[in-house]
Amino acid sequence: MKTDHAFPLSSAFAALGAAVLFGASTPLAKALLRDLSPVLLAGLLYLGSGAGLALIRLMRDRGWRAPGMTKREWLWLLLAIVFGGVLGPVLLMLGLSHTPAATASLLLNLEAVLTALIAWIVFRENANRRIVLGFTLIVAGAVLLALPGSSQHLGLGHGALLIAGACLCWALDNNFTCRVSTSDALFIAGLKGWVAGIVNTAIAIGLGAHFPATPIVGMALGVGLLGYGISLVLFVLALRGVGSARTGAYFSTAPFIGAAIAILAFGDHASWLFWLAAVLMGAGVWLHLTERREHLGRSTRKDREQQA
């Protein structure tokens, strides 16, 4: 198995780091929407990711180096890009045009659920009761986190179905990316950024979007590099160690992190449901982290017994 010496984080904390960066990008992106259309902002975020990671990779390798992927890995990566970088964002933008923001936010939590279900059912990843309980607590917290801003009941109209389709695309993307997670994480994330950025920007221009002032574009590219680029690199590294289901569970704390930053930095109101969600999600992550340590502890004790 290949390793990335530039990212010596454990898999669990890599997943949490990805959640922190992606979660922080949400309130920042919301602020940028004052000057950018949603589709153009999505394109610039991904372009920032692709361009920044490509530069980092060139500096790391002191030039271009082939990723050394097999034909099968290229197929998995292509599927991940098509579903996660192209179809997912387009379905989300179409769904948002027909769905209230609060309902859309609630529906987006389907990504973590669908990621785990696909990992467990299709790819046969292991999941014990502790993992299932922790995941359930995280999802419950994410649902509660969406409730304070929700003033309408969850409907099953065209917009909701489109957003659910976007979540399914990203869930497939997560599991497809897991199949190539032993390859160069910088290359995987960078290529996703380039393709998704070019496609989304082209769609935005086709819809008549106009570019704002250069500083706004620069901020969007910077947020994209951190929230979508570096975050995805950490996500891939986490997939390598703990698989799609557990990585998805850790990553589902991103909405909580984004909401916390919105409260502290932007003065958003926090209801009692927010703090209840914080407790539930924290408990879920704790169950996953302690499960991993206990598993490693049992493995170490077993190895010592076999050596004795």
Question: What are the main properties of this structure?
Answer:
disordered C terminus; 0% strand; mainly alpha; 308 residues
State the domain count: 1
Largest sheet geometry: none
**Succession of helices and strands:** HHHHHHHHHHH
Q: Which spans of ≥5 residues are poorly predicted at pLDDT below 50?
A: 1-9, 148-156, 295-308
Task: Count up the helices.
Answer: 11
The mean pLDDT is: 77
Percent in strands = under 5%
The assigned structural class equals mainly alpha
Q: Specify the overall morphology.
A: globular
Question: What is the percent of helical residues?
Answer: over 70%
Oligomer: single chain
Radius of gyration: 19 Å
Q: CA-to-CA gap between the ends?
A: 29 Å
Based on DSSP secondary structure assignment, what is the total number of beta strands?
0
Write the layout of secondary structure elements.
Layout: H1 11-32, H2 38-61, H3 71-96, H4 101-108, H5 110-121, H6 129-146, H7 158-178, H8 185-206, H9 214-251, H10 254-266, H11 272-307
Brief rundown of the structure:
This protein has 308 residues and is mainly α. The chain is built from eleven helices and no strands.
